[in-house]
Amino acid sequence: MKPDPATEARLFGKLAMRGVLPRDAVGELFAAAKAAAAAGQPVGLSSLALRRGLIDKERLLLYFHTDGDDVPGLPGYEYVRKLGEGGTARVYQVRHAVEGRQEALKILHAELAARPDAVKAFLGEAALLKRLEHENVVKGLRAGRFGEHYLFFMELVDGRTLQDMIAQGGAFDEDGALFVILQVARALEYLREQGLVHRDIKPANILVTAENAVKVIDLGFAASGGGAGAAGGTTSGTAAFLSPEQAQGRTDLDVRSDIYSLGATLYQMVLGELPFTGDDAELVQKAVLEGLSAAATKGGRISAHMHYFIEKMMAKDRDIRYQSPQELMADIEDQIAGKRTLEVEPAAEGQDEAERALHARRREERMRRRRNR
């Protein structure tokens, strides 16, 4: 096993503080690891602990999977691995010991379990995900309380977040990016029909499977469109992807705020960088006041069509943005269909060159009319 040093240090420190492992022995592990690193032969705390017989491998793996026993030992379930962690909860892959069924398990952080507002929001998300039914939205299964822990089960999505994909592979090609954005737009249209605004659309909350299924996750900030919702007048969401109205703490958010955040996501997908940089306070200010970098969007790094999509999705004035996911979807589908038509051999479609050119001109005219609305 090769966990990262920071995770190891946090875990062994926690086990020592709780008396699970002798403090002196853990202190010696840290000293030995430091000496090994200084000698140019770094070794992990886990490897040292296993060699010295301080803990066995099975028990150590269990502690890694459960964050030092911070998560409950659920009867009938085995922890497989940790999938992720946010500001309010951790998510794990678990397996039913008898049926072999695998699910995702979200557990509210222990320090938030004593806060009624945090518990209400957590269970509210669980109830919402259980109610929603859409192929591009993760499905909630059941929720409850086990001891002092609040938790809920979800469908297990075997995929990676866009954030991980960008970090590991860099920018997406434009066709691949538009495919993902189209699926997310379908999810947003469904949420709009349900009277909901996601309020935290970003690459970390979009999963893509090996079969190219796209799922929107983490509806912890979701609220009714046009109202204050769970967070009242406070600014919710992630600073780098906030719409201007969200950054201002406005309570009358609607789906156009999610479209802006999806535009910022598209920007990062195709350019490999965030639209704005800085600390959270600077990002909030730039979301309201600063325009997109012309050097990035008009410097030849992306196509004219991609520039149009990003500029329209991220317009500061929400009345200039796409007014609904349906409108965005129509433009993306026109773009994809038009490109496919131009790439198809005439014989395959029964079209000659003139017919193909006419189809392309008609498509361009539709795009022009939309731009001039």
Model description:
Helix content is 47%, strand content 14%. With 373 residues, it is α+β, with helices and mostly antiparallel strands. The chain has three domains: 5-65; 77-155, 2-Layer Sandwich (Phosphorylase Kinase, domain 1); 159-371, Transferase(Phosphotransferase) domain 1 (Transferase(Phosphotransferase), domain 1, Orthogonal Bundle). The strands form three sheets. The protein has a five-stranded antiparallel beta sheet, with helices on both faces. Strands 6-8-9 form a three-stranded antiparallel beta sheet. A hairpin with a 4-residue loop joins strand 8 (206-209) and strand 9 (214-216). Residues 227-234 and 344-351 have low confidence and may be disordered.
Provide a short characterization of the protein structure:
This protein is an alpha+beta fold and 373 residues long.
Instruction: Give the N-terminus to C-terminus distance in angstroms.
Output: 57 Å
CATH superfamily of the largest domain: Transferase(Phosphotransferase) domain 1
Number-wise, the strands total 10
Low-confidence stretches: 227-234, 344-351
Instruction: Determine Rg (CA atoms, Å).
Output: 24 Å
Beta-strand fraction estimate: 5-15%
**SS field, number of helical segments:** 15
Overall average pLDDT: 86
**Derived structural class:** alpha+beta
CATH class of the largest domain: Mainly Alpha
The CATH topology assignment of the largest domain is: Transferase(Phosphotransferase), domain 1
Q: How many structural domains in the coordinates? A: 3
Order of helices and strands: HHHHEEEHEEEHHEEEEHHHHHHHH
Order of strands in the sheet with the most strands?
1-2-3-5-4
Helix content: 40-55%
Outline:
globular
